[in-house]
Amino acid sequence: MELRELGGTGLRVSAVGFGASPLGHVFGDVPRDAARAAVRRALDLGVNFFDTSPYYGGTVSESVLGDCLRHAAVPRDQIVVATKCGRYKDEGFDFSAARVARSVDESLARLGLDYVDILHAHDIEFTSLDQIVNETIPALRKIKESGKARFIGITGLPLSIYPYVLDRVPPGSVDVILSYCHYGINDTSLVDLLPYLKSKGVGVITASPLAMGLLTDNGPPDWHPAPEELKSACRAAAEHCSKKGKSITKLAMQYSLMNNEISTVLVGMNSSKQVEENVAAAMELSTSGIDEELLHEVEAILEPVKNVTWSSGIQQA
Ligand code: NAD
């Protein structure tokens, strides 16, 4: 598995990252044996980057990931573990300095770790971005100084949140950003922001190459926020691939992996089979390239909904 530099952090992360939200049962139940086997298989195939949050499954994802990593008995310095703070299933959003300080301790206890490699403020568009600039990031920097997190990041859906924050904090305050659903076959809008993020020295993580289930044969979960036109176009694209005996998921994975300016592609996985398929997609990309003909056909089907997204967060002042 290819390792890529993550901005200026010095971390080298696997091009395919393990998104652990499914381990919080957010896409359906996952038996513990299946979770452990998926994490074990990922490690064996060279995946070293794991992403979770206290929000996923109301803390279940963190606890299950912690259990799976302990069970795999992997040396701590061979994995890169990211979690988040500020978004909670029952409490909602709280990006106050006091809550994020408590949050990292709770996450470390659930994960069974002394430190996380990355601590993100999770979905910052749900609070005033000025609070993120003036209160949350200074609090995260203190956590970083304490050694409980090696690097800090911000996540969220609207791309405008990143320059807003990065232009207002001291240089080097934010190490990485995590963008989701903006670098895949149906939505490539993150690409326009990459030169800016590079100029700021910020590492770039993209998540949800399968558009949170839209680009799979099974389709998205009920809670998926996409507008119906996007859901039906993705369904048509998946059916087109399946009629040709091909996999939309493989194509979508490979598409997101093609841009080397993006350090890692976080894909949510809940079984060894999914791990094997997604790693195989990455390996095949590096040896044979993407199926250009199928890509053009799928791009044509998705053209009417290109970069269609949905709203997320509060109205910023
Ligand atoms: P995704 O696009 O990765 O899709 C996940 C879905 O695809 C799950 O249902 C999974 O079971 C399925 N899947 C995965 N591999 C498959 C395969 N080979 N064949 C068929 N189905 C397959 O969406 P995601 O899980 O939401 O995103 C990936 C990860 O990124 C998350 O787990 C999370 O860690 C992170 N993330 C973070 C944020 C944020 O910080 N705001 C937002 C979204 C995602």
UniProtKB/TrEMBL annotation:
Signal peptide range: none
GO BP: L-ascorbic acid biosynthetic process
UniProt-listed Pfam families: Aldo_ket_red (PF00248)
GO cellular component, one term: cytosol
Stretches assigned to the NADP-dependent oxidoreductase domain: 16-288
GO MF entry, a single one: L-galactose dehydrogenase activity
Cross-referenced InterPro entries: AKR (IPR020471), LGALDH-like (IPR044479), NAD(P)_OxRdtase_dom_sf (IPR036812), NADP_OxRdtase_dom (IPR023210)
SUPFAM superfamilies assigned: NAD(P)-linked oxidoreductase
Name of the protein in question: NADP-dependent oxidoreductase domain-containing protein
Annotated organism of origin: Panicum hallii var. hallii
Taxonomic classification: Eukaryota, Viridiplantae, Streptophyta, Embryophyta, Tracheophyta
